[in-house]
Amino acid sequence: MWPECWQRDIVKLGVANAVIDGTLVAGDVEVEDGRISAVGVMPAGPRGTAVPGFVDMQVNGFAGVDFAAATPEEYRTVGIALAATGVVAYQPTLITLPEDQTLAALGALANYQPAATEPAVLGVHLEGPFLSPLRPGAHDPASILDPDLDVAERLLAVTPVTMMTVAPERPGAPELIQLLMGRGVKVSCGHSDATAAEAHDAFDAGATAVTHLFNAQRPFRHRDPGIAGAALIRSDVTASIIADGFHLADETIRVAMAAPVAIALITDAIAAAAQPDGIYPLGDRTVTVTEGKAQLSDGTLAGSVLTMDVAVRNLVDLGVSLPDSISAATAVPARALGRNDLGRLTVGAVADVVVLSNDLDVERTLIAGTQVFPRA
Prior knowledge:
By secondary structure, the chain is an alpha/beta fold. The chain folds into 2 domains: 76 residues, Roll (Urease, subunit C, domain 1); 283 residues, Metal-dependent hydrolases (TIM Barrel, Alpha-Beta Barrel). Strands 7, 10, 11, 12, 13, 14, 15, 16 and 17 form a 9-stranded parallel beta sheet that branches. Strands 3-2-6-21-22-23 form a 6-stranded mixed beta sheet, covered by helices on one side. Strand 12, helix 4 and strand 13 form a beta-alpha-beta unit. Helix 6 crosses helix 7 and helix 9 packs antiparallel against helix 10. The longest helix is centred in the first third of the chain and has 12 residues. It is globular.
């Protein structure tokens, strides 16, 4: 008789420990037929930590590709590059553009089907056009619209939209939120001048998230806490943050991580991510990246060149525990999108796994048990 493990083609990852359902567990991890078959296996491997594959809810572009003008083959290029940073699933994100350009970008994505060994495309995040002209961030105010159900219907008809960022205080926003909820689209509040009361109304009506907390929204003040203050005290809301050292102060991140709100790391990456400093497109905007800081010509921050592995390390450097930092890049965004099949490393789960070095660098990325980084 052959030993059972030989018959079943079990692969050990050779790690010293793993983050399992938010807890650091000593021992190796076994993979069988594309799924996790055992955790906490002794003897443990010599080094490194296995964690769930990262889930990024907001990626505008990557590796020289801007999703506003990407071809299916360029999406494939992005997938390969994202896997090298530990990302196994992501939402391509489109900033506010004229409607015809948005429809064209959505059409291009509709023609892309990731291979089984590429990061999954979870659907599109439309970060606009129904935002506040008072809080445009890097979006062109000329293309921002008040909520319009007819426009929304046209955008939703092209390819699956899984999330839309909306300024909930705009006229027609309550009706738009109801339409989106009826179509299974997650509503995230952002680029908004909403008061706390207006934000609470939106959350009570079904909005479940906030896009890049504190950025491009009404400032938090002690008697006017705005959308950020409303979100921070709610355990039924997920707020995304960009932990790149530019968008938020360290103290702000620590406050957010200590609050009842669920915090999800996003990169808000643009085409310049994983590229040298220079000039890059972001939709119909032009962004200059200098020493890793992405800005419009007037100094407005315009996305980031952050990668998810760096975001996790940045949280850990701020004193956030490794399990909590990993959850912010995995389980929290997966839950926010209603994807309980992602962001988990537990027996029976699909083996979407990242192996981190002792310094938390990405050493290997597996998708459904197949190593996709480093590529053979």
